[in-house]
Automatic annotation (TrEMBL):
The chain crosses the membrane at residues 20-46. Signal peptide: none annotated. Keywords: Membrane, Transmembrane, Transmembrane helix. InterPro entries: TamB_C. It is found in: Membrane. GO terms for cellular component: plasma membrane; TAM protein secretion complex. It comes from the Bacteria. GO terms for biological process: protein secretion. The keyword Ligase does not apply. This is Autotransporter secretion inner membrane protein TamB.
Length: 1396
């Protein structure tokens, strides 16, 4: 028994180990159960996951987890927030019913997954992580039998507006990935509509892979917002596949608003060489793509791809690739792979009418002209040659532009497998512009970048040297190394012409500045700049700075400037600067000292200048100690500023600056909101000394104070300032006073107060009695001001409101009067200024009536629209008093471009236009339309006008700078009726119209005029002479220096033709020299009263037209008849009419018709005209006279001189049957077209010789009677008529004698019976004779058959007394005569006549 007992085993170390292991397992299992199945355990797991899932870029908040391994897991919520702590995703009410034991088989089986609420407020901000993250992997096999999300809420940033959805579905994947099934249905539930349906199955055993997906949304859908499509578009996308895995096809289509917009088909066929790929697509893909991508395939595009994907994705072969859109075409072919030979060619070519591509959002996008790109890859994949070329004509943005950009990247040996190789880079921009003046000047001449580069496994880029050059600057980067993780190192050096900085910089620094520096940045973000050196002719600097990854900063700089005189004549000397910084970037400690050397300002010595500062730039606890010392012309210059913080407040005490007799002093306390309290006193007795420190020459004095206090939560400043006098270059101010308060100084300042200025003069403008009041109301500063500016009364009421991003200006009223023209603001105006650009929302003014409306923006860029309505042209008279314009102007004007290069386009209509300057010629209302533009200092115009038959068009341009070159074309029709008022007072009437086609070139100061002026079928009537010209046609050619009458023709209404030609010089300095010729052929002239003639004329007009031109030539008179009027008076006297109390239009008409009688007489026309006449007949009052001869007119039209005349050929005077033969006669002229008669006719009566003298003008001749021996005139007349003494006459004979006297003097009309008979029969001569011996009476008639032949017939009272006679003038005074009587008797003879 003892042995048996002794053989039982005893517990030892193994037992104790097993026991503790069992206890440990029990405790572990209890812990597992506690953690994974109880609520406290769920809190612990949630807390752990929160910590593990949160990081710098996002935070995870999991409420709790219940029943993690119970098969019924519940999670309160999961919330994801961004780096700013803003939640972007919230999942609430998560229920998972599942089978935990499937995890042992590397699977996951979920019977039901429900998420009660899903809220996606916005899309997460992408942020790169410096560490690679492991992607989330699903279990090898999973089976989700049902998934439900009844309430999915998308926020406005995601969907464009709040949108609600519901979702349900299922998914299954087996462990061998040979089977995969999925279906998903998402519906919109907020009434808008829309649905997404996806059904996919992959069954390897059945060699099947089918996909069916369809998305449809009405207008206002989420996809339209995400793709940045128009919200009114209804979108539908569908994709279906069919076929086996060895021959798989996919068809996709997209519709918008029910119309198919794009279609695509993809086919993949498996083979031994790999998978053959075929893709064909066409449509307007840009409708479904974001604008930044869609613009590349704008319009209808076609895509074709035929290629092969090699086994194991080792490479790809592209047989055909083409893409064509409205913007570009692309094509490519060849092989690219990680091993083996490669040969790939690809290109992108812009379309001929391609537009600009736009990248970036907001107000300042970048626009790029579609580039041309070529890519060539050849050789072996291990050492391939790669060449990329790209070029674009233009790239520009809101603040820059670049023209003719090109880039070439050339790698001669590049491994496609490990992305390594060496090559060169070359970039060139022919021209670069910038809104920053310094940058623009630095880029002058274009920019080029050249150098060699090396790439190591696509991670590190290095270069021995890369150079950047422009026309005025260059930079070189040597030993350059850039790591994709952010590390960088380079040695920099360069030079720059200092004129790039400013015009004064070259004088201060010297012509050129050189610099060197070593720059490095590690992967943690620490940046160092070492060995920095800068040098120029007059300046040098050196130093360095280091920025740590955690915000540390350490640096120092030393600089010398030896010559300040280059800044201008007002300053000379030099400066030295030392400065250092340390601590952190958020609160750096600084120390600096600026020392002057031999300084002179405005000719004043500034000696011993030292400005020192040290402190800490910590916004939470600022510290600074600033001191200034020196002497200006021996007078003290000192200042001190001490900033310290105690008790949570910042004290600035002292604050003191003394310059000569000027003192600025005070103390301020800043509370925790940096709101100041305290006072600053200004005692400026000699502003000239103070302004010298600012390099300004301003003289005068001022005084006042600025008091600060805190009222409530706002800082308030009270300003009291008086300026007795202040003057500087081109300005002077006297007796100014400012009294005001500024509330909320540190926030939005709200000034109130008054400003009074007795007198100010600046820029040539004098302003006096300025009174302005300003106040605050609702954030607005209201200003009411009155003043007298440039002798113009101006009043203004406006208000302004400054903001963080804009300043608003609203003008309630504004008016002035300029040269009698009232200019008023028609309605309240509003202007908003944003970033230096004024946006004029409304501005309407009325200059003298009408309406001028202005809207748009004005700043560096201009975009203004100006509308004019009913603007009276009388307002122009204020600008140009002599214009005398009237009418109304309407239209539009647009202003674009920039302030330095504006582009103005206009379209204006003027109605009822009249000009006082033209009213003396033609007071005609016109309607005018003009359009054109102003660009690049040139105005172009295209105008049309019409009115009262006048019409014209004009087009051309005018340079506004330089020589003011002009180029214009004018054509139109001018009715001569417009000239009726001007020429009527000259007794001339002109009907018809002239056609003008005129070109004006040259410059405004020396215009060159060319073109033609033509007229046809016109009519000219000279009422003073009775001359009328019908069918008047003319062509006048205009050349820059003369006008040429190319043709002139017409028909005299009384018979005959007229023609002419010649030139008129257009040189006003030479008084318009003329050389004109005028011819009249077979012309007939009859004044209707006295003179009738036929004539030929060959006349010339030469010499200066405005300085006694000369009329010369010959006038040949044919048969001319001068008829002496039978009765008196010979004319009607002109009636002088005086208008009294006449209306304005009658007075205007009278003024136009009368002309300016006080303008002085014309100098007239010089004469040298020869008039020849062979037969001039004077008839009337018993006379029948024939004359011939020639006459030469000299002198001038104002004082003509006649040499020669027309002398008697034959003639007789008949008085009561008595015939007197003229014994002498002459016809002359004395400054008038009315001829002067000097005739004498004699007859023998018994022993008495009677002579009748006819003298004086032909329209009022004087008859006188003489005799030998001398008798009284009545006795002479009795002897002449009856051959007897007056005393022996019967009463009837005395009456006949009185009739004869009346006939001769014109008191009796008709010329007697014989004269009336001659006119009725049309003969040239009727003669009644009485034989003194026999008392027989005979009648004789005669007529000229031509110029030399006269035929006469005479018949007596007795038988056989009739006879016929013919006279033939053969010349030289010899005449042949033949005569035959009724009794058969004939006679013949030769006669010789000579006048003496």
């Amino acid at each position: 028994m003892t042995d048996r007992q002794s053989s039982k085993p005893r517990p030892g170390a193994l037992w104790r180990a097993a026991r503790w292991l069992a206890i440990g397992l029990l405790v572990f299992l209890a812990g597992i159960v506690l953690v994974f199945t109880t609520t406290p355990g769920g809190w612990l797991i949630a807390l752990t996951l929160n910590r593990l899932g949160s990081g710098p870029a996002q935070s995870v908040d999991i409420d709790r987890i219940d029943g993690l391994l119970s098969g019924s897991t519940r999670i309160g919520h999961i919330m994801l927030s961004d780096a700013e702590g803003e939640p972007w995703l919230l999942l609430k009410g998560i229920r998972i019913d599942w089978t935990p034991l499937t995890l042992l088989r590397s699977g996951l089986a979920i019977d039901d997954l429900t998420i009660e609420t899903v809220e996606l407020a916005k899309l997460p901000e992408g942020e790169e992580s410096e560490e690679e993250s492991t992607p989330f992997q699903l279990p090898v096999a999973f089976d989700i039998k049902r998934f439900t999300a009844p309430d999915i809420l998308l926020g406005e940033p995601v969907a464009g507006r709040l949108a609600r959805f519901e979702a349900r579905g299922s998914a299954q994947v087996d462990g061998t990935m040979s089977t995969a099934l999925a279906d998903l249905v998402v519906k919109r539930t907020d009434g808008v509509g829309g649905e997404l349906v996806v059904d996919a199955d992959y069954l390897e055993a059945e060699d099947r892979f089918n996909v069916s997906a369809k998305l449809s949304e009405p207008a206002g859908g989420v996809m339209a917002h995400l793709l940045n499509l128009p919200p009114e578009d209804a979108i539908s996308l569908s994709a279906t596949s069919q076929g086996s895995l060895a021959d798989w096809r996919l068809n996709a289509a997209g519709t918008i608003n029910g119309e198919i917009i794009a279609e695509a088909s993809l086919q993949m066929v498996a083979g031994e060489a790999g998978n053959a790929v075929s893709l064909q697509a066409n449509g307007m893909f840009d409708r479904f793509l974001p604008p930044s991508i869609g613009q590349l395939v704008a319009g209808r595009s076609d895509i074709v791809l035929e290629g092969l994907i090699e086994p194991e994705q080792n490479g790809a072969v592209i047989d055909v690739f083409t893409l064509s859109s409205s913007e570009l075409t692309a094509e490519g072919r060849g092989r690219v792979a990680r091993e083996g030979n490669v040969d790939l060619t690809a290109s992108v070519t812009p379309q001929p009418n391609a537009g600009m591509l736009e990248f970036g959002t907001g107000a300042s996008p970048t626009r790029v002209a579609v580039p041309a790109v070529t890519v060539r890859v050849t050789g072996n994949a291990d050492e391939a040659a790669i060449r990329l070329e790209a070029s674009t004509p233009e790239v520009y943005g809101a603040e820059f532009s670049a023209d003719a950009l090109s880039a070439v990247l050339d790698f001669d040996r590049f491994s496609l497998a490990d992305r390594s190789g060496t090559g060169t880079i070359a970039v060139r921009a022919n021209a670069i512009g910038s809104s920053n003046d310094i940058v623009a000047r630095a880029m002058a001449g274009g920019v080029s970048v050249n150098g060699g580069v090396a790439v190591d496994q696509g991670e590190v880029i290095t270069s021995d040297r890369i150079g950047i050059e422009s026309g005025v600057a260059s930079v070189e980067a040597e030993a350059l190394s850039v790591n994709m993780s952010g590390a960088l190192a380079a040695s920099l050096s360069g030079q720059m012409r200092n004129l790039v900085l400013s015009e004064q910089a070259a004088g201060i620094l010297g012509p050129e500045t050189r610099f060197t520096a070593d720059v490095a940045r590690d992967e943690g973000g620490a940046l160092t700049v070492q060995n920095f050196e800068l040098a120029s002719e007059f300046a040098e600097a050196s130093g360095g700075v280091a920025l740590g990854a955690d915000g540390e900063i350490e640096g120092d700089v030393a600089a010398e400037l030896s010559r300040l005189a280059g800044a201008g004549a007002d300053v000379s000397g030099g400066l030295s600067l030392t400065a250092s910084v340390s601590g952190t970037v958020s609160a750096p400690a600084f120390e600096a000292s600026l020392t002057g050397r031999q300084l002179k300002l405005q000719g004043r010595d500034l000696s011993d200048l030292v400005l020192a500062a040290k402190g800490v730039a910590d916004p939470a606890a600022p510290q600074a100690d600033i001191t200034l010392s020196g002497a200006l012309e021996g007078r003290p210059v000192n200042g001190s500023l001490l900033v310290s913080q105690t008790g949570g407040v910042v004290r600035i005490d002292p604050l003191r600056l003394q310059v000569a007799d000027n003192l600025i002093s005070g103390a301020l306390v800043l509370d925790d909101g940096y709101r100041p309290t305290g006072k600053i006193e200004l005692d400026l007795k000699d502003i000239g000394s103070l302004s010298a420190l600012a390099l300004q020459d301003i003289k005068g004095s001022a005084g006042g104070s600025i008091s600060f206090k805190v009222r409530g939560s706002e800082s308030v400043a009270d300003i009291q300032l008086g300026v007795p006098e202040l003057s500087g270059e081109a300005f002077i101010l006297r007796n100014a006073r400012l009294a005001g308060t500024v509330e909320d100084v540190m926030g939005t300042p709200k000034p109130t107060g008054t400003l009074e200025v007795r007198e100010v003069s600046a820029g040539g403008t004098d302003v006096s009695n300025l009174v302005a009041g300003f106040s605050q109301d609702g954030g607005w500063t209201t200003v009411e001001a009155k003043a007298q500016a440039a002798d113009l009364p101006i009043s203004l009421a406006a208000r302004v409101r400054p903001g963080e991003t804009e300043t608003e200006l609203e003008i309630e009223t504004a008016n002035t009067v300029w040269k009698g023209l009232a200019i008023n603001l028609s309605e309240p105006a509003r202007v908003v200024v944003r970033e230096g650009t004024a946006e004029i929302e409304r501005l309407v003014i009325s200059p003298g009536g009408g309406r001028v409306s202005i809207t748009g923006t004005a700043g560096q860029a201009l975009d203004l629209d100006i509308a004019l309505a009913g603007l009276p042209l009388t307002s122009v008279n204020a600008v140009a008093p002599g214009a005398g314009l009237s009418g109304a102007l309407s239209g539009t004007v647009s202003v674009a471009g920039t302030a330095s290069a504006p582009v103005v386009r206009y379209n204006l209509d003027a109605s009822d236009v009249r000009a006082a300057a033209a009213s003396a010629v033609a007071d005609v209302p016109l309607a005018i339309n003009a359009s054109g533009e102003f660009q690049s200092d040139r105005v172009t115009f295209d105008a049309r006008g019409s009115g009262s038959g006048l019409s014209f068009t004009a087009s051309g341009g005018l340079d506004t700078t330089g020589t003011q070159a002009i180029s214009a074309r004018i054509s139109g029709s001018i009715p001569f009726s417009l000239l009726s008022g001007a020429i009527a007072k000259q007794g001339v009437a002109l009907t018809g119209a002239a056609q003008a086609d005129i070109a004006i070139d040259g410059s405004v100061g020396a215009p060159q005029i060319s073109g033609t002026i033509t007229t046809s079928d016109s009519r000219l009537v000279d009422g003073r002479t009775g001359i009328a010209i019908d069918n008047l046609s003319a062509e006048i050619g205009l050349a820059p220096d003369q006008a040429s009458i190319r043709s002139l023709s017409g028909e005299l209404s009384s018979g005959g033709t007229i023609s002419g030609s010649g030139t008129v010089g257009l040189d006003a300095g030479a008084n318009y020299p003329a050389d004109l010729a005028l011819k009249v052929s077979r012309g007939r002239y009859a004044d209707g009263q006295m003179v009738a003639t036929r004539f030929d004329a060959d006349l010339t007009l030469t010499g200066p037209l405005t300085q006694l031109p000369k009329l010369g030539g010959t006038v040949m008179l044919d048969e001319t008849t001068i008829t002496v009027p039978d009765t008196l008076p010979s004319s009607i006297s002109r009636l002088d009419v005086t208008h009294r109390n006449a209306p304005a239009d009658i007075q205007s008409q009278a003024a136009r018709l009368s002309g300016d009688e006080g303008s002085g007489a014309s100098t007239g026309i010089a004469l040298d005209v020869r008039v020849q006449a062979s037969r001039i007949f004077i008839r009337g009052r018993g006379m029948d006279v024939e004359l011939g001869g020639s006459l030469r007119l000299t002198g001038s039209t104002g004082a003509p001189v006649a040499a020669g005349g027309f002398d008697l050929v034959r003639g007789r005077l008949s008085v009561l049957g008595q015939r007197l033969d003229f014994t002498r006669g002459r016809l002359g002229f004395a400054g008038s077209v009315v001829p002067i008669l000097d005739l004498a006719a004699s007859s023998q009566s018994g022993s008495t010789t009677v002579t009748v003298l006819i003298t004086g003008p032909a329209n009022a001749p004087e008859f006188s009677f003489t005799s030998s021996p001398e008798l009284p005139e009545d006795e002479v007349l009795a002897q002449l008529v009856f051959g007897r003494s007056l005393s022996s006459l019967s009463p009837l004979q005395i009456a006949q004698l009185a009739e004869a006297a009346g006939q001769l003097t014109g008191a009796v009309k008709g010329g007697g019976l014989v004269e009336q008979l001659r006119r009725a029969t049309g003969v040239d001569d009727i003669d009644l004779r009485t034989d003194e011996e026999t008392g027989d009476t005979s009648l004789g008639v005669g007529k000229y058959l031509n110029d030399r032949t006269y035929f006469g017939i005479e018949s007596g009272s007795s038988a056989g007394s009739g006879k016929a006679r013919i006279d033939l003038d053969i010349g030289s005074g010899i005449k042949l005569r033949g005569e035959a009587s009724s009794g058969g008797e004939t006679k013949g003879g030769i006669f010789f006549e000579r006048e003496y």
